[in-house]
Specification:
Length: 791
């Protein structure tokens, strides 16, 4: 062994870190620095210090090593910086003032990192270097994909730059990360960029400390990097490189639909201003009314069609670059466009270009439909084989490339309360994953499977929970395979093999069946308890709390379908203390689409069927009513989501739905927000009766009150239920916080009003923000409950 690798006792176990981890974790092979590389010199500095620093968190793939290198040079320090499985290690040697200045600048650098500093006695280094990475026990974070930075964007459109028009331009501040990484440490050899050998020019940039491509792992140029190619729907290659881009632009302008390979997967793109093409895309995707996300060329374009707050602007321009649901402008000029892109919806999903290729396309077409490139409800395609198979009947052309995607991830979706910094996460995926959520106390690794709809799973390591990218609906075989594959990859990234697991208590959930097939005696958690726990975990709440959990459905501890629940957290466990009165779902799951059935059920239950609105009588309502009366295939539910469906059907806003929550979204869009009226309700020993609400809605319909006013009164009533019950039960159970979670709270009208009224009454109100408020956040709550049970 080289003398340069002799163990320095002042560093504790460095570099031979003793393994203090779960015994099931896989063994790691340590790689050591060659003595010639380290250039260690004998002797020690006189009147100098040696500071050893360990940086943990998201510290790889974000430019920390180049930053440290240049900072050390600025202060005239010697030493090294290098990646390890645990993060980044730094040795800084120099005078006391220089060390102090270096330490201060490092702490204020803005990286998402934690630093541990230790003054030591060490051998002398001749200069400061970036050393080769070593593989140690993995505790570092995998970096997320980053939107193209301003410097790269300028070069992209600079005709004098060697990367002019190059659709894979990147630097240490931007570009693919999670999507291309195979394992840590984050080095080129551990990514899908390995097959692209850097040309002398790129290699020179990579080795130049003054260049912002210094140690940028995906660094490439037209001479040595990935290239575009355009194919027809049969997979025949038509053109390459600049010609492929030029042809793609021409086809988009001519009304064609293109399957476009992006960072985390394929998109389907077309000219959003071409109504005929958008209609063709809807027909080919069998997506009659579900909204399409659009990519605006810039903030000016987005602001032309939508209201954009400063907080929404920040999100659009962020490195994560999610889809942001923006409020549509009230302008008759855009009614036709909005009806084409997002009918009966108050919002339009907008994102800005986040890859160089998208910037090049958007420079030619200011507003593009940019929707997931997949079959309905299946994973987004990540390679040409998948794309040619799944999208052949949808896309006219395929704009592909030869940079492989290792980890698929769909676009993230967020929204904000009006003119507020308070964010609601709808889908947590590209740009946010795999950043962890702090999880309180450390413990053994836990696998939490999440739910079956909008699935995200999570794995805990120490005191952090790592939530997966968006997986989707596990009822589809391809999504279940994606689920299993992603679990294995996450375990590898984290260097853990959980021996403990938790899943939803629903016996028929695919996620639960998977867990039961892989783990002995997994903990089963009721759906709505997990929702409440997810808010507690995210916000670190220690007090007793009341959770108002409103969603479409979830398995309850009485074997029925819950969805309108008041949950008590007493500091150690969860219990239901109130709920919406049960009503039947004639036909079961079909009620999610044939929502008129829910309206019939509620009228039948409350002896009001004789007042059924005429527009519902065209459906076989008598058959549905008999099913309710006899109890045949009519499971009982307390679902707030289905209550929204019933009101939408009664008012004529929607009688059928082609996708989940379509009716609820349309009902929110119809609401006249200046209306202040509410409907009567009562809480009878923990049962919130619905008869007064339903009868009042019918009275308004028969009196000619508009659907918009009825919608507003209904929303106001749900908010009032939350306020009154929060005050009542907080006093009764000494609860100090109120929790709001479940898919219904994606409704900004309801969430904003409930929060404002609760806070006005002095309540501490919390909701999911950094994790999805819908079922995508269940996994965090499940893991929290499992961890709580161990304390």
């Amino acid at each position: 062994m080289s003398k340069a690798l002799k163990r320095n006792k002042s560093l504790g176990n460095y570099p031979f870190t003793k393994r203090i981890c779960h015994p099931a974790q896989s063994r790691r092979v340590y790689k050591f620095i060659d003595s010639a590389t380290s250039r260690r010199m004998t002797g020690t500095y006189n009147n100098a210090e040696s500071l050893f620093i360990k940086a943990s968190g998201t510290v790889q793939g974000v430019g920390l090593r180049p930053f440290v290198f240049n900072l050390a040079k600025k202060f005239g320090l010697a030493g090294f910086v290098r990646n390890t499985g645990a993060g980044v290690e730094i040795m800084a040697q120099g005078g006391k003032r220089a060390i102090s200045g270096f330490k201060d600048k490092l702490q204020k650098s803005g990286f998402d990192a934690s630093f541990i500093f230790k003054n030591i006695k060490a051998d002398k280094y001749a200069d400061f270097q970036i050393l080769k990475s070593i593989e140690t026990e993995i505790t570092s974070e995998v970096p997320a994909d980053l939107a193209v930075c301003e410097e790269c964007k300028k070069e992209l459109f600079d005709k004098k730059d060697k990367r002019f028009g190059y659709p894979f331009i990147n630097c240490v501040n931007c570009g693919p990360r999670f999507s291309i990484i195979k394992k840590l440490p984050y080095d080129r050899k551990n990514t899908t960029m390995l097959k692209f050998k850097m040309c002398p020019s790129c290699a020179s940039e990579y080795d130049d400390p003054s260049n912002r491509r210094f140690h940028a792992q995906p660094n490439a140029c037209p001479e040595c990097g990935p290239k575009l190619y355009l194919c027809d729907k049969n997979g025949r290659r038509l053109s390459e490189r600049d010609a492929a881009l030029k042809d793609a632009v021409k086809h988009l302008k001519n009304g064609k639909i293109i399957a476009l390979k992006s960072i985390g997967g394929y998109h389907l793109a077309c000219d959003a201003l071409n109504g005929k093409t958008v209609a063709a895309l809807r027909k080919r995707k069998d997506r009659p009314s579900k909204p399409f996300a659009v990519m605006a060329s810039g903030l000016d374009t987005a602001g032309k069609f939508c209201l954009v707050s400063k907080f929404e602007k920040e999100a659009l321009l962020s490195a994560a670059s999610p889809i942001v649901l923006l409020r549509k402008k009230s302008n008759k000029k855009y009614e036709k466009l909005f009806k084409s892109l997002a009918p009966a919806n108050p919002s339009l999903g907008v994102m800005l270009p986040y890859t160089p290729l998208q910037h090049l396309l958007s420079a030619e077409l200011p507003l593009l439909v940019m929707t997931s490139g997949n079959r309905s409800d299946e994973p987004v395609c990540i390679n040409e084989k998948e794309a040619f198979s799944a999208l052949k009947g949808t896309a006219d052309y395929f704009l592909a490339n030869d940079r492989d995607i290792e980890n698929r991830s769909d676009d993230s979706i967020v929204k904000f309360l009006p003119d507020s910094s308070e964010k609601i996460t709808i889908r947590r995926s590209r740009g946010y994953v795999p950043a962890p959520v702090n999880f309180g106390k450390a413990g053994e690794s836990i696998f939490a499977a999440g739910g079956d709809l909008k699935n995200n799973f999570c794995i805990t390591r120490n005191a952090k929970a790592y939530i997966s990218q968006f997986i989707g609906d596990l009822a589809h075989e391809q999504n279940l395979s994606f689920f299993a594959e992603s679990i294995k990859k996450t375990e590898k990234f984290l260097d853990v093999k959980p021996q403990k697991a938790v899943c939803d208590a629903h016996p028929a959930y695919f996620s639960s069946q998977y867990v039961k097939s892989k783990y002995k005696a997994p903990v089963q958690v009721y759906h709505h308890y997990a929702h409440a726990a997810s808010v507690i975990a995210e916000h670190g709440i220690k007090d007793r709390a009341l959770g108002f959990i409103f969603d479409g459905n979830g398995y309850g501890d009485d074997g029925r379908i819950w969805g309108g629940e008041v949950i008590l957290f007493d500091g150690s466990g969860f219990s239901r203390i109130a709920h919406f009165d049960y009503f039947a779902l004639p036909g079961g799951d079909i009620c999610v689409k044939e929502i008129w059935r829910v309206a019939v059920s509620l009228l039948q239950k409350h002896n009001l069927l004789h007042r059924l609105p005429e527009h519902i009588k065209k459906y076989p309502y008598k058959t549905a009513a008999k099913m309710v009366e006899s109890g045949i295939n009519s499971p009982l539910t307390s679902s707030a989501g289905r209550l929204f469906d019933a009101v939408a059907a009664l008012t004529g806003v929607k009688s059928e739905a082609s996708f989940e929550a379509e009716a609820a979204v349309a009902l929110e869009a119809a609401a006249v927000r200046t209306e202040r009226g509410i409907y009567e309700f009562s809480d009878n020993n923990g049962v919130i009766t619905l008869s007064g609400i339903i009868e009042s809605v019918l009275n308004d319909i028969e009196s000619g009150v508009s659907a918009g006013k009825i919608s507003a009164r209904f929303h106001n009533t749900l908010a009032e239920i939350i306020i009154r019950l929060a005050l009542k039960y907080s006093k009764q159970y000494d609860a100090k916080a109120v929790l709001l979670s479940g898919g219904v709270f994606q409704n900004t009208f309801l969430l904003e009003k409930a929060l404002a009224d609760l806070r006005l009454k002095g309540s501490k109100a919390y909701f999911n923000s950094e994790v999805p408020i819908n079922d995508g956040g269940l996994c965090l709550g499940q893991a929290y409950i499992k961890r709580q049970s161990e304390e």
